[in-house]
Amino acid sequence: MSSSVESRPEVPEGYLGQQPKFAEFKLECISHTNAEFTIPNDNEVEIKIRTSGPIKSTANLIQVRTEKEFPEYVFTQTQGDIVSFVISFPEHGWYKFQIFALPASDESKSLPNVINYLIEVKRALKAVYPFAKQYAPWREGCYLYSPLILNSSSRLHTVNFKVLVPRAKDVAIVAAGEWTHLTKTSGDVWEGKATLDQHRNKNVKVTLNARFGDDESKYATLLEWVV
Predict the structure, then answer these.
(1) Predicted structure pTM score
(2) What pLDDT is recorded for position 3?
(3) Which domains are present in the chain?
């Protein structure tokens, strides 16, 4: 696509950057200290924030021109004390990116806004695909090494899964009732291969599931793809 010709959007005073709760929760910007930045030759970015303790978080990507929200193009994951937000931008132009967070120990259902970014994407040359749907248990310290993208256009004959799931007693991939249990390789990392080619273009849900308790019938869904 050609370079953006959109002018910089107006944002309310105090909207950009860290909000009061950011300091209160002892959060720290690791990758992008400036709340407004330009991506000149790519349409993907990873924003990293360091936390002082376990948090639950969510994020919102908004295309300024259309005011359309693109939650499916944001993938949130955690590695140690770093929460990362991988963002794919479907088109060039200006975007608002909002992060909401709360200490994991807080029982409140409402997550306050902690920081806001204004991002200009000059060129959107790469095709983008939705990330996996992320369920609440995923946000409790999990990290996906592979595959970051999984859909009907992916190589599905043998899919290599590698994921970090703290405190899990078992982790499995489920597709159309077929279970593939992953193997714990080191620490909280689980790995395995699943054959999904038979489900291509059938709108089959592929889920990553984990068992945290002793009840062998109770698994929580962490991620969900559709092939």
Answers:
(1) 0.92
(2) 47
(3) 17-121 (2.60.40.10), 133-226 (2.60.40.10)
